[in-house]
Amino acid sequence: MDKIVGFDLSTPNVDGTDNVTLYLLELLNSYPLLDGEEIRFQSIKSGNMTMVPTSNVAIMSERKSITGHVVQKCQYAFQIYRTAKGLSENNQIRYKEFLDNMGVWLQGLNYPAMAEGMKMDSIKPSNTSALYMREDNQSEAWMIPITATYIREFDK
Amino acid sequence: MAKLKREALAHYIKPVAALSAPWHLIGKDIEDMSVDMGGSFESRKNILGETSVSDTGYTPSLAVSPYYSDPADGIYDFLLDLALGRKSGDDAKATMLEVVIEDTSAESHLAYQEDCVIEITSYGGNTEGFGIEYTVHPNGNRKKGTVTIGEDKQPTFQAD
């Protein structure tokens, strides 16, 4: 596992906005095979798809040049959940494939521009999707863990 | 006063053939860069045990590595032409500016302007980017003065 240099507390929850989360949410909701579904942020309801960050943005590396220009490589780890109730075995397979295919789609994208000074480098699943939990009432959640890596540059 | 950060010493260049071009601040992707003074000093000891030092001065140079090509940089076209056009001599002439910024809030800063010649040392490099490495050779006509830095971060030199 890469060593974490620090945590970027400036992007999440600054003045109530989160540049990276909003960017990713908009990107996820542009997935062509969503078929009318919407991926929401941290919304746990049966039949929903939801995106849940798993930690603050981690700064994986930081380089400062002699001009005071700083380049950070940051990672934003999150999970996408797809919940349902009483899925047949075939539908469970479809749910898993849906999430895995979304992961493949995210990897191959030309990422749209981010805010000034930021550039998305990669968005990759850190594992294949799997059944995350199943409750006695047949509610179940399938989950795929994803890591987005972006570059942030600024003058110090 | 605390010790100065590395960014307190700034080096700018611009080609002689494009005097209206903006000054290029060297070092955006560089973590370590120094002027090699190339001093020629010789110390001798005579039979009386006395040491004397003679010198023929300095032949400084500034090796810039890496520079990752960015077509938006004012210096890019010049460096690319030198490298791929295999140009030298008058085509490689430029002006350099060395600025010492002791206090970022000051109106003006100590600076030296000098003619220079750019030598392309290599181009290409690894997967980080299209690198063009070069060396700045100061070439005389050195003037001491001050620089004011505008809102656009461009320096304006005023000789003493």
Throw out a few tags for this protein.
heterodimer, A: 156 residues, alpha+beta, eight-stranded mixed β-sheet, 8 strands, 19% helix, B: 160 residues, mainly beta, nine-stranded antiparallel β-sheet, two-stranded antiparallel sheet, 1 helix, 46% strand, globular
Draw up the topology in text.
The complex is a heterodimer of chains A (about 160) and B (about 160).
Chain A (H helix, E strand, L loop, with lengths): L5 E3 L10 H10 L10 E3 L7 E5 L3 E8 L4 E17 L3 H20 L9 E8 L4 E5 L4 E17 L1
Parallel strand pairs in A: 2-3
Antiparallel strand pairs in A: 1-4, 3-5, 4-5, 5-8, 6-8, 7-8
Chain B lengths: L8 E7 L8 E2 L9 E2 L2 E7 L5 E8 L2 E4 L11 H9 L8 E8 L8 E16 L6 E8 L4 E7 L5 E5 L1
Antiparallel strand pairs in B: 1-2, 1-7, 3-6, 4-5, 6-9, 7-8, 8-9, 8-10, 10-11
Explain the overall architecture:
- The complex is a heterodimer of chains A (156) and B (160).
- Chain A is an alpha+beta fold and 156 residues long.
- Chain A has helices at residues 19-28, 89-108; strands at 6-8, 39-41, 49-53, 57-64, 69-85, 118-125, 130-134, 139-155.
- In chain A, strands 1, 2, 3, 4, 5, 6, 7 and 8 form an eight-stranded mixed sheet that branches.
- Chain B has 160 residues and is mainly beta.
- In chain B, 6% of the residues lie in helices and 46% in strands.
- At the A-B interface, loops of A face loops of B.
Radius of gyration of chain B (CA) equals 18 Å
Strand content of chain B: over 45%
The arrangement of helices and strands of chain A along the chain is EHEEEEHEEE
Major β-sheet annotation of chain A = 8 strands, mixed
As residue ranges, the low-confidence spans of chain B are: none
Number of strands of chain B: 11
- Main β sheet profile of chain B: 9 strands, antiparallel
Chain-averaged pLDDT of chain A? 86
Give the structural class of chain A: alpha+beta
Amino-to-carboxy terminus distance of chain A: 29 Å
Basic shape of chain A? elongated
How are helices and strands ordered from N to C of chain B?
A: EEEEEEHEEEEE
- The geometry of chain B reads as globular
Kindly report the average pLDDT value of chain B.
95
Instruction: Please state the CA-atom Rg of chain A, rounded to the nearest Å.
Output: 17 Å
Straight-line distance between termini of chain B: 26 Å
What percentage of residues of chain B falls in helices of 4 or more residues? Answer: under 10%
Query: What's the oligomerization state?
Result: heterodimer
Number-wise, the strands of chain A total 8
What pair of chains forms the biggest interface?
A: A-B, 8 and 14 residues
